[in-house]
Design goal:
Layout (H helix, E strand, L loop, with lengths): L7 H6 L7 H36 L2 E6 L6 H12 L1 H8 L3 H26 L28 H9 L2 H13 L19 H16 L2 E2 L1 H17 L3 H20 L1 H9 L1 H9 L15 H4 L8 H6 L5 E9 L9 E7 L18 E7 L15 H14 L7 E7 L1 H9 L18 H19 L6 E5 L5 H25 L1
Parallel strand pairs: 1-4, 1-5, 5-6, 6-7
Antiparallel strand pairs: 2-3, 3-4
GO biological process, one term: adenylate cyclase-modulating G protein-coupled receptor signaling pathway
GO molecular function: G protein-coupled receptor binding; G-protein beta/gamma-subunit complex binding; GTP binding; GTPase activity; metal ion binding
Keywords: GTP-binding, Magnesium, Metal-binding, Nucleotide-binding, Transducer
Length: about 500
């Protein structure tokens, strides 16, 4: 055979000529070790590729709960914690929302003041205020409130805020309006039969439902972009003038806003009418000095606390910038929480990784805004039960946020008794630790009784407007959802 006919690969792998048995054993041992290392590298690459394949499937998280339970604030905490660049880019958009919340706080007080001043002017010696609460809740021995000329002047000087509120509500559309009534009489207008029979038609409708702060901001940005694209300098200047005028009017009312909020007669009036404006979402009257200035810029905490109502279902896509799921796409679904909005939830139950259910436990003595006959805590219990017993969610991880613990503690410190609104609470200690244990146990018992199958379940005591503590909670949530997400991918 000629040298040119020899296969070069054969020559390369052939043992050396005149190889001794010892040399052969050493060579074969080295080759075996090299093969082992190569196989380990191949296995590691395979595992990394498999993990990447699993990660490519987005993590889907659904936020459920009644209106003003903290769903949108939780969503904003996710963005603040895991998608900071996007958060910073959007932060200044919330300036007008904070302004709207602030002037609405003031106008709500002015509405009550106008009503009470009119009632106080009546010649009835039995006047105790025009509250619509039942007589047993009002102490008829309380003296007549004495409104003075300064209250009339405050109403007059704060009058321009009504126009500012109307202008801002027009800007944000339906998201700026709060529900006043509903014809829906059930806590959860969805069920297995409806899900299976109407899945396709309703899902198409729900996906097109885009009414929330995301859509509101997109609309505002589109208006400005259209003006810039068209080279309409006058339109851009007019938009800026409107923003400047709103800030100037609010800044001009700063001292009067402080005065009406700090006035002792007004505080007594609010107490008698059982109006706890400081417990409501989007309350900023304690921050008037900082916010009512022409150059105000929202802080992270301001954005989390700011209130815009969610209608329908909003989808938010984040690429997590850090954490265990860095580089992973998360899809969070924020839903409208009023009873009339809940029928739109169930198309999103399919293929969701986890549900965060927010139950505001401070609301044990409050009624639904859309149905004043229904206790808010009872509504949360009924809604939780419906989620637990839904067969489509039987394998979905449930995460329960017992939210607004800060407001619960404040109520208990004011001497409000839980058993007055929740008779089953009985003679237990009226403190925060006893109350949270009691509510947590009740939610656990509902899950145990009504869930069609065992599933992962986690409980967190939260105040989602506290961004620092919520970031810690979200870290635990991310870890539990990641484990379940990877387990699901293994089963596919």
């Amino acid at each position: 055979m000629n040298a040119g006919d020899v296969d070069p690969l054969t020559l390369a792998i052939a043992p050396p000529p005149n190889e001794t048995p010892a040399q052969r054993a050493e060579r074969e041992s080295a080759e075996a070790e090299a093969l082992r290392i190569s196989n380990e590298i191949d296995e590691q690459i395979r595992k990394e590729r498999e993990n990447e394949r699993k990660k490519k499937r987005p993590v889907k998280l659904l936020l459920l709960g009644q209106s003003e339970s903290g769903k949108t604030a939780t969503l904003k905490n996710f963005q603040l914690t895991y998608a900071k660049r996007e958060w910073i880019a959007e932060r200044n958009n919330w300036r007008a929302v904070v302004f709207l919340n602030l002037v609405r706080n003031v106008n709500n007080i002015l509405d009550i003041l106008t009503r009470e001043m009119a009632a106080a002017s009546l010649p009835s010696p039995d006047y105790i205020g025009s509250s619509d609460e039942s007589s047993e809740d009002i102490n008829s021995s309380k003296p007549r409130l004495k409104f003075k000329e300064k209250h009339r002047l405050l109403k007059l000087r704060l009058g321009p805020l009504r126009r500012i509120q109307n202008d801002l509500e027009r800007r944000f559309g339906a998201t700026a309006l709060e529900p006043q009534f509903t014809s829906v009489t059930t806590a959860a207008p969805f069920g297995s039969e409806e899900i299976e029979s109407s899945r396709q038609t309703s899902k198409e409708f729900s996906i097109n439902s885009r009414n929330g702060w995301k859509s509101a901001f997109e609309k505002i940005r589109a208006t400005r972009a259209a003006a810039r694209a068209g080279g309409d300098a006058n339109a851009l200047r007019r938009l800026q003038e409107i923003d400047d005028e709103i800030a100037e009017v609010i800044a001009g009312c700063r001292e009067d806003m402080k005065a009406i909020w700090e006035d002792l007669t007004v505080r007594e009036m609010l107490s008698r009418s059982k109006s706890r404006v400081e417990d409501s979402a989007g309350f900023f009257l304690n921050d008037v000095d900082r916010i009512a200035v022409s150059n105000y810029e929202p802080t992270d905490d301001d954005v989390v606390r700011a209130r815009l109502r969610t209608l329908g279902v909003q989808e938010y896509k984040f690429i997590f910038e850090h954490g265990r799921t860095a580089g992973q796409e998360w899809r969070l679904y924020d839903v409208g929480g009023t009873r009339s909005s809940r029928a739109a939830w169930w198309p999103y139950f399919d293929d969701v990784n986890a549900i965060i259910f927010l139950a505001p436990i401070s609301c044990f003595d409050e009624k639904l805004a859309e149905d004043r006959r229904v206790n808010r805590l009872e509504d949360s219990f009924l809604l939780w039960r419906s989620v637990c017993e839904c067969k489509l969610l039987s394998r979905t991880q449930l995460i329960l946020f017992l939210n607004k613990c800060d407001l619960l503690q404040a109520k208990l410190q004011r001497g409000i008794r839980i058993r007055s609104s929740v008779p089953s609470f009985g003679d237990r200690r009226n403190d925060i630790s006893t109350a949270t244990r009691y509510f947590q146990q009740h939610f656990k018992e509902i899950l145990k009784q009504y869930s069609p199958a065992q599933r992962s379940f986690f409980v967190h005591l939260t105040s989602v407007i506290d961004t620092r503590s919520t970031a810690v909670t979200l870290g635990a949530v991310e870890e539990s959802i990641l484990r379940d997400h990877l387990r699901r991918a293994d089963l596919m």
